[in-house]
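=== Structure Prediction Worksheet ===
Name of assembly: unnamed complex
Input type: mixed (protein and possibly other molecules)
Chain count: two
Listed entries:
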Amino acid sequence: MNELMNRRDLLKLAGMGVAVFVSGTTVWAGGTRQKEKMNDSFYFVQLSDTHWGFNGPNINPDSQGTLKKAVAAVNALDDQPDFIVFTGDLTQSTDDPKIRRDRMAEFRDIVSQLKVKTVRFMAGEHDASLDRGEAYQEFFGDLHYTFDHYGVHFIVLDNVSDPMASVGEKQLQWLRADLKQLNNDARIVVLTHRPLFDLAPDWDWATRDGAAVIEALLQHQNVTVLYGHIHQEHHHMTGHIVHHAAKSLMWALPEPGSVPKKAQIPWNAAEPYKGLGFRNVEARVRQARYEIEEFAILKG
Amino acid sequence: MKQLVIFLIAATGGYLQQQSVVRSTAHETRNNEQVIRISASTFEFNPSEITVRKGVPVVLELTSQDRHHGFKLSAFELRVDIKPGAVEKVRFVPDKIGNFTFLCDVFCGDGHEEMSGTIKVVEQ
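=== Predicted Assembly ===
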């Protein structure tokens, strides 16, 4: 438990149907959640942008240890999540197909230490863009798929295996067909890597045909999107759809548009692991409400 | 004829390199267009900082030295694919002053996120 911070602040995001708990403790995750679980509530953990294989001492001198710390921190949660999702960039990109597969195998070995065995993976551009997802699929399966959990329909979208950052017409048709089977008030959570909206196109923080995805999703009343890619917490709404970006477990990036040129934020020895972390997402199915609890990684 | 000078800052040298493209044969034959050749390779554009003059048509001649890259200059709603063995020409008239980022928008590898540059538009 020493890898978790002991401070929790509650931020109410007005109108977003979400509460974000920043730097959470595990105290909150005790017995009350068990009671609520019987009332249409469950929670899962989101980890993102682990970039296994990255080597940059000035950016993260603990590049070999941060993911392992996160795995230990998740395993130390008092109440274990129903499942865990990794929203892409599991590994750092490489031109060498053998090294790519070596990194994926190492990543898979590390996360196999998670107590919770239901783990949902998705690709980031670092995993899948150079070979259109060939290696990724060998290790982690389909690039896009759906699953259901306690009344919530999860849709995993691939906006990375095309190096031009498109979902593509074929996947769009698949998405529309999937949505067509759902009631308008279905609880839908979309998991993807890149932002589906134009967060910062000049920083490559967009999906080329993301507008078509959002247009399809807008036909449903209760849609939440969880994604990664931008290496920081971020919340945004397109119509009634709320989008939440997750932190990385390798390096932090500046706020969109805050500096002239996007660049990795250097490691600060005075504040190690600053900006890195993972999150719990508690789904309150009946209210179509999601509560996000952010966890920091601390020097352990 | 009005003298036009394009300043190119070499991507790797870090010094200001004055290049009189305007006086070149290519410029003379292209009706006062500012012609700029940009080479893309993993993971940089060369040059990566370019100064052009407002109101004077620009032609970017883009080539790739290694693999498929993209060139996106959203401030002027421009984007094009750059593939080895071809020269992609992009024409526009800079109608506003400022510094505008361009980037590679086709994921090209480990250093892709750093592959960007700036076009500075100044008064004539």
